[in-house]
Design goal:
With about 675 residues, the protein is of the alpha+beta class. Helix content is about 25%, strand content about 25%. It has a five-stranded mixed beta sheet with strand order 26-27-28-1-30, with no helix packed on it. Strands 2-3-4-5-29 form a five-stranded antiparallel beta sheet. The longest helix has 27 residues.
Length: about 675
């Protein structure tokens, strides 16, 4: 059956016993996926299949970032504690445990030659690690906020980093220094990607644009129009002919010389986490709470491919650029000693083992699906890559394109028939009786060193908190506002509802007046606050908002203030901190998130000042300014102590809010 669908949802399944925090697709095949969650595990999946292939354990805190190696034979995972673990998927065992970061790992990447890993953290630092010697080679410092994304250049000589501070930085590995700052973004930068051939860099930001940078002159080439949402993922076409940009519920195809949008789609995938290309299809993956969903886009039906399948062309050894730019030389140096000699190391911080040698002993590779594991991660593929066999490598999994569902068919919601033409799975349990029956075959497999378990994953604990969903308000369903016709019997299945149009409209608008009154009152209050704000008296505007006793109004105001940390001062902190405590105990997740973001601003900008004033000895004589500063610092300290008690009671929660509470608990250390 033919279909005109350009994109569709492929599957949805429960991936972890706790909330999922991160995921990554394999960018070589586009058919494998790794996820990390609050249950401190790293799970491996084949795209399109609902069963977990392998579960990797050993982290002692929630997993915050994951990344495949370039050949998909290794995976690295970073945790909230700042530790990295690297696994060899073909040998089913852990390779290295590395520690050194002081806070959450947020971004990871493998060097093109595979012997090095780079990590970016909430502690604002970037570290380059030698996998073989278990040590940190160099620490790059320069960002003033979290490092959201890092990528090696195709030739392995540079690292590009994207920060929450709105900067894109370019680092030279051989010189061990910063090359340049790229500063034109007006919001946090979420993604960076090097062009596969040309000296060209792309960066995607929350300011809704993708900017392109010439790496010879370090000057901007072009920028996309800000006509989409926050850019969450970008990915170049393997031939470098265009770039794909993914934002919430939207997918677009861009060119850069000149800047243009070739095509766009409404995808409905929510907050997309990663994208990759598998043959002529783009695979997108997203997560929400314990669930992971995958989506497929048929690139043959989009411009600039224009309906014809892309030809698979192996780029020449020295690819040429139509723009006249230099091209990356991605050939590996002839010897590893040459490569090692070119990397500058920190003399004051020689590589050393920074983890207890016994830590790797508790890191287990738990094979859940031996048959898929044998098919995907057999060591024979590694031998073929090392020997550079000229014959085609046996594909690790079925590489046939995913088939689209018919245009008039709703998505499937079960896995009763795995032989359907368009498998769409929503699975409620990962490990079940069907997997347990295969365990003996895993024990008989002598080629692996993994420990096989068959315990089912425990379901995530429910929270008495209203989540901040992207598409519907809390506790309200559209069906509640629609008329309730009588259900027709089997014999009268085609009968129409008896309610008239006037009655239906009357039912829909019932209660509309009271809602309009509430929203009108809120709009009036916002207008009052705005008038005071634009008059130049910010403190009076905030006092007025607090006096209105409306948490929704405070959330709107704080959403503005957290983006302008320069407006904050000690006086403002002492006024707002009691309100922030109330927001952090709210039942609405969106309120809690705004409250936590504001507390982060206070701690990052005033934490050290508050502590220094609290521990400083009293001054001699009369110093009115110092006494006033001390009074405000003491007020802030007492309010932050109350906030810390809230964190102590809630930091054990699972999910996104629990992660936020634990992150704030770490930041509270500046007051100790």
């Amino acid at each position: 059956m033919t279909t005109t669908k350009k994109n569709w949802k492929l599957q949805e399944f429960v991936a972890h016993a706790g909330n999922v925090n991160c995921l990554a697709l394999g960018h070589k095949s586009g058919r494998v996926m790794v996820t990390g969650g609050d249950d401190k595990k790293v799970n491996m999946w084949a795209v399109g299949k609902p069963n977990c292939i392998m579960s990797l354990s050993g982290h002692t805190s929630p997993v915050e970032a994951v990344r495949f190696g370039n050949a998909e034979e290794m995976v690295v995972a970073g945790s909230m504690s700042g530790a990295l673990k690297i696994w060899d998927l073909e040998a089913a065992k852990i390779v290295r445990t590395l520690t050194g970061h002081k806070s959450n790992i947020k971004s990871l990447d493998f060097h093109p030659y595979g012997d090095f890993v780079a990590s970016g953290s909430l502690d604002t630092n970037i570290k380059l690690w030698d996998i073989r010697r278990k040590g940190c080679i160099f620490t790059y410092k320069g960002h003033s906020n979290c490092v959201n994304c890092i990528r090696f250049s195709p030739d392995g000589r540079w690292i590009s980093s994207a920060g929450e501070d709105g900067l894109v930085k370019l680092w030279d590995l051989t010189a061990g220094k910063l090359l340049t700052d790229l500063k034109q973004h007006t919001g946090p930068v979420n993604a960076v990607e090097f062009h596969p051939n040309e000296f060209l860099l792309a960066s995607g930001s929350s300011d809704r644009t993708i900017k392109f940078w010439d790496l010879e002159t370090f000057q901007p080439v072009s920028s996309t129009d800000g006509d989409t949402g926050s850019i969450r993922c970008i990915f170049y076409h393997p031939e470098g002919s265009c770039i794909y940009g993914a934002s919430q519920d939207t997918f677009k195809v861009y060119g850069w010389e000149p800047s243009q949008c070739y095509d766009s789609l409404s995808t409905g995938w929510g907050k997309i986490a990663d994208i990759s290309i598998a043959q002529s299809q783009l695979i997108g993956a997203t997560f929400h709470q314990t669930n992971v969903s995958t989506y497929v886009i048929d690139l043959q039906k989009l411009q600039p491919l224009g309906g014809s399948p892309p030809e698979v062309v192996n780029p020449p050894a020295t690819p040429q650029s139509n723009s006249g730019r230099r091209s990356f030389c991605s050939e590996r140096p002839p010897t590893q000693s040459t490569k090692q000699a070119n990397l500058k190391e920190e003399p004051e911080d020689p590589p050393q083992i920074t983890e207890d040698p016994g830590a790797d002993a508790v890191s287990l590779a738990d094979i859940k699906d031996p048959s898929d594991y044998k098919e995907i991660f057999r060591p024979k593929y590694k031998l073929e890559r090392e020997e550079q066999v000229s014959k085609p490598c046996i594909p690790p999994i079925n590489m046939e394109p995913f088939k689209a569902p018919p245009d008039d068919s709703p998505p499937k919601t079960s896995v009763k028939d795995e032989k359907e033409d368009f498998p769409v799975h929503i699975v409620k349990h990962i490990v079940g009786p069907s997997v347990q029956t295969r365990v003996p075959s895993a024990r008989a497999n002598k080629n692996t060193t993994s420990v096989v378990k068959s315990e089912p994953l425990e379901p995530a604990k429910t929270q008495n908190v209203i989540p901040s969903k992207r598409s519907e308000p809390a506790g309200i369903s559209a069906d509640d506002f629609l008329p309730k016709p009588e259900l027709p019997s089997m014999a009268q299945s085609t009968a129409q509802p008896t309610m008239s149009e006037a009655e239906a409209i009357s039912s829909i608008v019932k209660g509309h007046g009271s809602m309009v009154a509430v929203m009108g009152n809120r709009h009036k209050n916002l207008q009052i606050v705005r008038a005071l704000w634009t008059g130049g008296n910010i403190k009076t505007a905030i006092d007025s908002a607090i006096g209105m006793n409306d948490q929704a109004l405070m959330v709107d105001l704080l959403n503005v203030l957290v983006t302008k940390p320069a407006l904050w001062n000690l006086d403002l902190c002492s006024i707002l901190l009691p309100q922030l405590k109330n927001l952090m105990t709210s039942k609405y997740e969106s309120y809690v998130q705004v409250g936590c973001s504001a507390v982060k601003v206070v701690l990052k900008n005033f934490g050290s000042l508050i502590k220094s004033n609290m521990v400083a000895p009293p001054s001699l004589g009369v110093d009115i300014t110092r006494e006033e500063r001390y009074r405000r610092c003491k007020e802030c300290y007492l309010y932050l102590t109350d906030v810390r008690q809230v964190l102590d009671s809630k930091q054990s929660m699972s999910g996104k809010m629990g992660s936020t509470y634990r992150e704030l608990k770490i930041l509270m250390g500046c007051l100790d």
